Amino acid sequence: MSVVVTAHGQDSTVGVVVEDALRGLEELGVPGEVVVVVGRADRTAQVALTSGASVVESRPGRGAAVLAGVAASRGDVVCLLDGDVRYFGEPPLVPLLVEPILGGLADACVSDLYWRPPHPRLWLHGFFAPLIGRLYPELLPKAGSTPWSGQRAALRALWPAELPDGATADLALLLHWNREAALLRPVLADDWTAPRKPGLAPARAELDLVVADALAHGRIDETGAKALPDWFDAVQASALERWGDVVDPLDFAVAERDVLEGALRELRAHGL
Fold it and tell me: DSSP 3-state assignment of 22?
């Protein structure tokens, strides 16, 4: 059992993440290791080593870090954690993500981390849910409500040999698992915190990734692929205007619904 922690420049948090991961391995009662991936041999590496992890360096980028950590690990199951996430629930994140795999209920899991406090999730409602629901409808129930989460686990054979270097890596990994995993499932989790929130808006690179993958696997034709950039621009402009300065939790839910419905209308308007 291997836990891979990506922790570029996170010396203030990585020690506790490693300690929690080791406690999770102990609770599982299986042989295990924690591998921390750093961008260079800095204080993050020193803290990780002191806390009981091994350390491997990688070039910059989310995808590069994940690949380096998986390559340096030895476990039959690999659990991926961010180096700045604190999870206060029981059981710890590692057994929470891994037990469905050890029990034969899943071969890959992604954490469904209930977002608290409410945060505008344009990425989910104005991009992932409508677009993936149109092109990969079977993936929506497998990914949960926080498909951007970096906390996930899978059998070693399901980790790809290649990933984009940058922030699109987690989305690329989901698409890969959608094809290769027989039992990809979300795992509900709560009682957590992280110093950074996911970005409000999706990036054009994420759209390009989905379009390229959908074309390569026959999920869309060239006409549809050419229409998606216009759909993307229209949805992002209207969604940002709709959210504005929403602060009330109930207003978040209404805004999310409006953004999703608007994105679906735009899909139909663009012939998709």
Answer: helix
For residue 3, give the nearest of 83, 86, 84 by alpha carbon.
83
In angstroms, rounded to a whole number, what is the distance separating the alpha carbons of residues 219 and 206?
A: 16
What does R_g of the chain's alpha carbons equal in angstroms?
A: 19
DSSP state of 128: I
Residue type, 259: V
List, in order, residues 6 or more apart from 208 with CB less than 8 Å away.
none
Lowest-pLDDT choice from 59-63, 111-115, 180-184: 111-115
What burial class does residue 196 get, using C-beta atoms within 10 Å of its C-beta: 0-12 exposed, 13-18 middle, 19+ buried? exposed
Does the model's pTM come out above 0.90? Answer: yes
* Amino acid occupying residue 179: R
pLDDT at 120 over 60: no
